[in-house]
Target: Glycosyltransferase RgtA/B/C/D-like domain-containing protein
Amino acid sequence: MPTDAPSWVGMVPAFLVLSAVLFAPGWLVVRALGARGLEALAVAPAVSVGVVAASATLLQRVGVRWGWLPLLAVTAIAAGIAWLVAHGLARTRLGSAHPADLTPARRLLGKPRPAAVAAIAIGFVLALVTILPAIGRPDELVDSPDAVYHLDRIRLFLETGNLSIANPTFYPNGFHSWIATGLLSGTADVLPGTNVATLVLAALVWPIGCVALVRHALGPSRLVTYAAGLASAAFVSFPTILLGWGVLWPNLMGTALTPGALALMLQAARSRQVGQWLGFVAALPGLALIQPNSLVALVVFALVWLVTARVRAGVLGHASWSAVGRDLGLVAALVAVGLLAAPLVSARLASTQSYVWTGRVSVWTALVEVVGGRLQIASVLWGLLLLLPLGIGWILLRARAAIPVVAMWLACVVLYVMAASSSWSWTALITGYWYNDKIRLAALAAVPGVVLVAASAPAVRALLRRIPALRARPLAAALVALAVIPAATVLWDHGARDRMLITFFRPGDPSHVILSREAQAQLRELSTSIPAGEGVVGRPENGTPLMFALFGTDTLYRSIPIPTTGDEIVIGTGFNDLVNRPDVCDALKRHNIRWAIGSPHVYWLDRPERSSGLSDLDHNPGVEKVRTVGDYTLYRITGC
Model:
């Protein structure tokens, strides 16, 4: 390994800075509002992203470059506004946002629960030991076309100081603005910094949210608290798949933040503390600015909770069935109207819902994939399949307050089956918020699924205590019950999980490698011949768009494949005839493109019709060969 290769230990400063940016602003805001404890910490990242992404967009409109000073200023302003709102409520008949018996110190700092801290640490360690060896190095490139866009956008944010949602085109900016803000510290380059950011989400944010959610769903006992930390690493569908599939990094972030917001919602619903409701509401903009379907998922969970609560009220006689039926009918009508009206109001949503995936499967196969975990792997995850019914059974028999969470998981299963198997066009009205993509829905099912796996611990303990040798040893029974979770998931599924991540980051098929480490070195060498400020064009399928993210070289194309309109398509299809195409020369001049790069390498996501003019530069009379390094050749544009 080269001596200059970055190490995971060397990435610790980047990890700490990115974590601080993600937690600190939101934590100050929700504490000022009145949310406290583990729930305040769990929901803080969503609030932080809302503060950063929205403020950066607004400040760009008035010409202010984003940086550490604006971050500190907007955090102070947001926390101040939250404090004024909370204390304003204290003077109204709505009541205080804070519990009256708390001292000022407790209101600010809270009181950490040792079991919760230990459970989060367990989840943290399990995530690291299952993820880091498979990824390899911090600067390993995940071979996914979406990674090109995300990495280039983060570089653009860093270079311009413009973290707006509209830079360069309208797209949710929560994920990119958080990473760009953290990388302002200079602790890591774009590629390793982004890999570290995904670790923050998978190894820190996700376990914190899972522990908070499980404690609210199943109670604060130490057994289920420790089980929550173990259960956070139980699923291959999340976070493992979203670390490489797509690559759906914004979805990874939104899903990782969902358990924390859901935990605070459950806490607020039970305590009816105004401050907790305010903290929950403060998290919603951030989720929308990361990936709107994260907000939709939270709405789905809230609706399922409401419907389950009303049915339970009818069963227990707390409400008449006529009142329950009326309420459920009203909810159904509102949902139907919303589903029909949303794509009519939003053209962007209508476009999202139009995604069509090949490879439809039967309903049974879809159930095996989502429940049995046989998604992008060859076999069923039998350990997980054993724990899920154990947890559901325990909840139905002994922890009925968590029945709404079972209903949430079933709702995710239904959504998955619809996306994976349905050929009816109307189902896109429901699953289209997730691009009709079953992978995203499998990841979402892990949110309530963590609660079900954690509930298997008390179920296993109850079974073990029927054994005479363990009946008088409750601690031993509890330890064995806890050990079953990682044994049945992390250990049993280690090979499948490891192979999946290795395939994402180091594919065996060369055509599935966007830019190998050798190719990166070759393009880095060529970039030294391109003067600063001058741009370069090349077929995006040969990996050249990553020159911007990796080296800062100004590339025309920054995504795979290229757009189908504008100067990009004019240059892509007409470059081979640029000596006779003044429109191509005008487009090149607008972007200051003076160089071109050719290569025989072609990535699997190939759209040759969009860049046909760039495919054979050796026979282009409008360019002059400058130098060749490995598989890449640099040309100077002379025909304009």
Strands lie at 535-538, 593-598, 623-629, 632-637. Residues 68 and 441 are 36 Å apart (CA to CA).
